[in-house]
Amino acid sequence: MKELLRTNDPTIIAFASALLDGEDIDCFVLDENISVLEGSIGILPRRMMVADDDLEDARVVLRDNGVHVSA
């Protein structure tokens, strides 16, 4: 799996997940429950991962919809 996106904003994660779901690209969010450890202050980023084969397609989908993706 490769990192597609890293953000502190849960709305971006939700938006990106919906976009990828619409294109039948599976994704997995890491560090989603880290807020329990950080006290819900949102300082630690969440990472969205996709399969190696889906990385370029996922990048195109997110970029086309104005979402900044990891390099």
Radius of gyration equals 12 Å
Order of the strands making up the biggest sheet: 1-3-2
Query: What class, by secondary structure content?
Result: alpha+beta
Tally of helical segments: 3
Residue share in helices?
25-40%
Q: Report the sheet with the most strands, covering strand number, pairing sense and barrel closure.
A: 3 strands, antiparallel
CATH architecture: 2-Layer Sandwich
Number of domains: 1
What is CATH's topology name?
A: Alpha-Beta Plaits
What's the order of the H and E elements?
EHEHEH
Mean pLDDT comes to: 90
| End-to-end gap | 15 Å
Number of strands: 3
CATH superfamily: UreE, C-terminal domain
Gross morphology is: elongated
Percent strand equals: 15-25%
- What's the level 1 CATH class? Alpha Beta
Polypeptide structure, described:
The structure is a single chain. 14% of the residues are buried. The chain has three helices and three strands, in the order E-H-E-H-E-H. The chain starts with a strand and ends in a 7-residue tail after the last helix. It has helices at residues 10-22, 35-38, 55-64, and strands at 2-7, 27-30, 46-50. It has one domain (2-64): Alpha-Beta Plaits. The longest helix is centred in the first third of the chain and has 13 residues, at 10-22. It has a three-stranded antiparallel sheet with strand order 1-3-2, with helices on one face. The chain has 71 residues and is an alpha+beta fold.
The gist of it:
It comes from Jannaschia donghaensis. This protein is α+β, with helices and mostly antiparallel strands and 71 residues long. The chain has 3 helices and 3 strands; from the N terminus they run βαβαβα.
